[in-house]
Amino acid sequence: MKRIILLCLVYLLSDYCLAGYTLKRNRNLELCREFLAYLNRKPDFYYFEELKQDKKFKSFTLPKLSLVDKSNYLKLYEKIYFYLHKYENLPENKKNKLRDEWYDEKEFILSDKVKLYTANIDANHNGKIDKLLIAVASYTENDKDYSFKGSYYYYWSITKEDDFNPNELYKLHEGLPFYYKGRFYMASMRSVGVSIYEPEVSKYYPYNNGVTSGLSICVFDRKKIGRS
To answer: In this predicted model, what pLDDT tens digit does every residue of 27-59 receive, in sequence order?
Structure first.
């Protein structure tokens, strides 16, 4: 909040206090037009850590995320991690390497940068509500390669019993979650702009390897105002 206030003061309370996004794709789509207005009602980078409810944004809602104790889900996360990396099929030298990589991943997950949540969402649009394990990783202006604060969201489908079914497991990379007219979307926030994605299971990979693709619905360019 202090950063936003200082930014506005620097620009003398001019129009630069509000974001200046422009819509590059699907200009006639209602979702894109409304999300553009949503972005431009607030200062630049305002939504990069999380999306916020806006009564002026018609049919826009946010999913309910339930914060969970990491220690209760670490073993499940480990099982998913090794499964998605095909641990059982690796030669021994690569298994050793993956185990070393897991220690780094575990340290990251347990750090203050990451929070774990669960949520009930039809994230792959197959008409079935799935329970998701969601890791939210926050980065700051002091992190390498980042000049702004923000968050990454990562999603894994799990069972109601807090396990995973290899035949139904899918993984979604990145994107801040929201609903528009009851349908799930993700907003990818970057310093150069914002993209809205509609997640779907990839047609080019087996369903159970966790690889998914997203259809890009809206693309917004960010007007540079002295920051990159």
So the answer is: 778 999 999 999 999 888 888 888 999 989 989
At 36, give phi and psi (nearest 5°).
Answer: -60, -45
What's the CA angle centered on 118, arms 117 and 123, to 5 degrees?
A: 115
Length of the chain in residues, anyone? 228
Beta strands in the chain (DSSP E): 22-25, 60-61, 66-67, 114-121, 130-139, 150-158, 171-172, 176-180, 183-190, 193-201, 212-221
> Residue 50 corresponds to which tokens in the numbers above?
């999380």
Q: How far is CA 27 from CA 22, 32, 33, 123, 177, in A?
A: 10, 7, 7, 25, 21
Dihedral angle of Cα 93, 94, 99, 103, to the nearest 10 degrees = 110
Structure tokens given for 48: 């990069």
Handedness of CA 67, 65, 163, 188 (dihedral sign): negative
Strands (E), 104-181: 114-121, 130-139, 150-158, 171-172, 176-180
Q: What is the pLDDT of residue 151?
A: 86
The helix/strand/coil state of 97 is: helix
